[in-house]
Design brief:
Order of helices and strands: HHHH
Oligomer: single chain
Low-confidence stretches: none
Helix content: over 70%
Number of helices: 4
Strand content: under 5%
Structural class: mainly alpha
Shape: flat
Mean pLDDT: 87
Number of strands: 0
Length: about 60
C-alpha cells in the first residue's frame, strides 16, 4: 500500500468516525477547541490572555 493510499484510507476512516457521531458529540468536539484557538491567536498577536481567563473558559467548556 502506498503512502498516499494509506493517508487517504486514514482520512476516510476519520471522516466515517466523525459522521457516526451524534449532533451533540460534534458540537462538544467543536467547542472543545475554541479556547485553545483563542489563546493561540491572541499570543500570535502579542496580546496574551491571562491564565485566569484561560482557566475560567476551560472550566466553562467542560460543563
Amino acid at each position: 500500500m502506498t503512502t498516499s493510499r494509506k493517508g487517504r484510507q486514514a482520512a476516510q476512516e476519520s471522516l466515517s468516525r466523525w459522521r457516526a457521531q451524534t449532533a451533540a458529540q460534534k458540537r462538544t468536539a467543536r467547542h472543545a477547541v475554541v479556547v485553545d484557538r483563542v489563546v493561540s491567536s491572541m499570543a500570535m498577536e502579542k496580546e496574551p490572555v491571562s491564565a485566569k481567563w484561560t482557566l475560567k473558559a476551560t472550566a466553562k467548556r467542560k460543563v
